[in-house]
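An example makes the point: we let one protein speak, the chain in one-letter code, the fold tokenised, and here it is:
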Amino acid sequence: MRFSRIGAPGHETPAVEIDGIHYDLSTVTRDIDGAFLTGGLEAAAAAVAAGSLPELPAGGRVGAPLAAPGKIVCIGLNYRDHADETGAAYPAEPVVFMKDPSTIVGPFDEVLIPRGSTKTDWEVELGVVIGETARYLDSPADARRHIAGYVLSHDVSEREFQLERGGQWDKGKSCETFNPLGPVLVTADEVDDPQNLALRLWVDGVQRQDGSTANMIFGINHVIWYLSQFMVLRPGDLINTGTPAGVALGIPGNPYLRAGSTVALEIDGLGRAEQTLVQA
């Protein structure tokens, strides 16, 4: 199934998307969140099969397809070509950092360039949404059953804040609006091979990223197993799994985003998003 949330910020209606049409799920669930992903999928499937869901009007704002994750966990330097372009050695273990969950906005919402920023950067990423609590998993083979689904995620970054201001990466990753998400959350059963998905991103019509999840250093199952050794992953948590080559940090001249820039991004089977940058 393909889930979305339609409506004004803070007032989104949970929906299931079928052939491009959104159907109202509010009789089944309050929202697309951890509670729904844990126990509501069968009820949603039954409502779809019964044809009992009302159609939502076309043209409404598309919100992030996941409401209020408990945490966003990110994996840095997880694509070989991205590590190569930044001159970094391949990590021996996953590089883990956290991102403020309140950074999530809709896939077509504006992204704010922080005050004082001159190095706001883009990163198309595969987002993995947890559907079952994971703690101390025995092996990566145990990970897949803990995945609810996959989503297109934009891990916007401010490189000066991240790399030049001391401390951890979080402050270059957690600025307001720095995680556009969606348009849809696609359940795991509909993604045949999450390690063979193409990711693409354009800035002002110029393609900057063209990669594949096959190029990850640490695969999705390994990442979930690894994280479960250090923290409890709970239903509704989001994991951003890294970005391929082509970020401004690694391009000669470093063409960072400016007010008025437009970023379009997509992942095979997970939809397309587009955001315009504005000054905070």
User: Anything to note?
Assistant: The mean pLDDT is 96. Helices lie at 34-39, 41-50, 80-86, 159-164, 220-228.
